[in-house]
From TrEMBL:
The entry's keywords: NAD, Oxidoreductase
Top EC class for this record: oxidoreductase
Residues in coiled coil: none
Family in the record: Belongs to the D-isomer specific 2-hydroxyacid dehydrogenase family.
One Pfam assignment: 2-Hacid_dh_C
GO MF annotations in UniProt: NAD binding; phosphoglycerate dehydrogenase activity
Function, in words: Catalyzes the reversible oxidation of 3-phospho-D-glycerate to 3-phosphonooxypyruvate, the first step of the phosphorylated L-serine biosynthesis pathway. Also catalyzes the reversible oxidation of 2-hydroxyglutarate to 2-oxoglutarate.
Stored SUPFAM superfamilies: ACT-like, Formate/glycerate dehydrogenase catalytic domain-like, NAD(P)-binding Rossmann-fold domains
Record-given protein name: D-3-phosphoglycerate dehydrogenase
Keyword Zinc: no
Native organism: Lactococcus fujiensis JCM 16395
Catalytic activity: (R)-2-hydroxyglutarate + NAD(+) = 2-oxoglutarate + NADH + H(+); (2R)-3-phosphoglycerate + NAD(+) = 3-phosphooxypyruvate + NADH + H(+)
Signal peptide: none
């Protein structure tokens, strides 16, 4: 992988000696991370497969690839809205059950096709929950396809808000999405708030014949409630990226096997983004696109940089500064940023004496509240 540069080997070290993992959606919740592991790059958007809290406690910086697969998901979602509207799943099943000559099947088709007459998406209302990298793209393109678009996202990022067409109407209550939409799609992470958003309480508010989509996470849907509201005609069609035995033989449900982000383009984008973040972190200590540590970018102009991951408690910076001063070293630059319970420090030193630097490192390693210490030597 060229993004990692010549100083890194890929796949040729035992797992418990690796400094970095790059992964997709495999579950790490029961995994014991070795002390060698410094970072994990999730080559995708969702990171609920990674025990982020545990990683923070161990000083492991977790990166994801925001937006890297957003176009792929958007295209599939738009396709699935049309697929559901045009009854293509039951129509295809009906057609494949026809027997006879081409001529007799043609006759049956012309007679029987009216049973599958669909609806156009143009002019209809789509409600989008979550206007991040994917939701904002779905919103803009649905609008271009002639739809009226309403969106709900109480935590929308400023950059995303700027990118969204002024024709997209933002609603402030989730219930408005369920009450007003002909199509509903969700593009949020799985959180306590989004868990089972698709359940009876909200289905009850929907128009009869709504097309519902879930290409975010399985646990967003309460499956028993979903089947009940398909049965009573409220939900005309459900398209999802997450399978269940309950779904496979239901004509009103289409399931793809977690393919939203599975295109050649998205896989390459995400892997490159994760590899770039990891490479930058390992070689410069800088952090971009981390899900558990703040963004810290600072050019290295000194012979040595020490990076510290510490608990976000009072006096840590003062403690760092006094340890440096005790060694008679001059600080060239210091950046400290906190996020939640943890903080990250880049400490650039005007010092070339390696013995002094190593003593300082040992002091830091022995300090309370400092979880991880790394030394980076400026390449000349
Ligand atoms: N099916 C797939 O293959 C696939 C691919 C990519 C992402 N995903 C899923 O889609 C999710 C979204 O991806 P993204 O790239 O757009 O992420 P993103 O972080 O760019 O956007 C998520 C958006 O959801 C919003 N949000 C969070 N909680 C919310 C809530 N309770 N109500 C409304 N909005 C809320 C956030 O403010 C943010 O704008 C991912 O977390 C992942 O679970 C699935
Ligand atoms: O969150 C994501 O990016 C998607 O769920 C894609 O997961 P994948 O990398 O396993 O395809």
């Amino acid at each position: 992988m060229e993004e990692l540069g010549k100083n890194f080997v890929v796949d040729r070290v035992p797992e418990n000696e690796a400094q970095a993992f790059i992964c997709r959606a495999q579950n790490f919740h029961d995994y014991k991370f070795s002390d060698h592991l410094l970072t994990i790059g999730r080559a995708g958007a969702g990171f609920n497969n990674i025990p982020v809290k545990q990683c923070s406690e161990q000083g492991i910086v977790v990166f994801n690839a925001p937006g890297g697969n957003a176009n792929a998901v958007k295209e599939l979602v738009l396709a699935m809205m049309i697929f559901g509207s045009r009854n293509l799943k039951p129509a295809n099943k009906w057609l494949s059950d026809q027997v006879g000559t081409d001529q007799s099947i043609d006759l049956a088709v012309e007679k029987g096709k009216k049973a599958f007459s669909g609806k156009e998406i143009s002019g209809k209302t789509v409600g989008i929950i979550g206007l991040g990298n994917i939701g904002s793209r779905v919103a803009n393109d649905a609008e271009k396809l002639g739809m009226k678009v309403i969106g709900y996202d109480p935590y929308i990022a400023v950059e995303r808000a700027w990118e969204i067409s002024s024709h997209v109407h933002r609603v402030t209550h989730l219930s408005e999405i369920f009450e007003q939409s002909d199509y509903i799609t969700i593009h949020t992470p799985l959180t306590d708030e989004t868990h089972h958003i698709y359940s009876a309480e909200n289905f009850e508010k929907m128009k009869k014949g709504t097309v519902l989509l879930n290409f975010a996470r399985d646990e967003i849907t309460n499956k028993a409630d979903l089947l009940e509201y398909i049965e009573n005609g409220t939900i005309k069609y459900f398209a999802t990226d997450f399978g269940s035995e309950l779904f496979y033989h239901n004509d009103a449900i289409f399931v793809s096997p977690h393919l939203g982000g599975s295109t050649a383009e998205a896989s390459l984008n995400c892997t490159k983004m994760a590899a770039n973040s990891i490479q930058r972190y390992l070689t410069t200590g800088e952090i971009i696109n981390s899900v558990n540590f703040p963004r810290v970018v600072q050019e290295l102009n000194s012979p040595y940089r020490i990076t510290l991951i510490n608990k976000n408690v009072p006096n840590v910076v003062a403690h760092i500064a006094s340890r440096v001063s005790e060694e008679g070293i001059n600080i060239a630059n210091i950046v400290n940023r906190g996020q939640g319970d943890y903080a990250y420090t880049l400490l650039d030193l005007d010092e070339t004496n390696e013995t002094k630097i190593q003593e300082l490192m040992s002091n830091f390693k022995a300090s309370d509240n400092i979880i991880r210490v790394r030394l980076i030597k400026k390449e000349i």
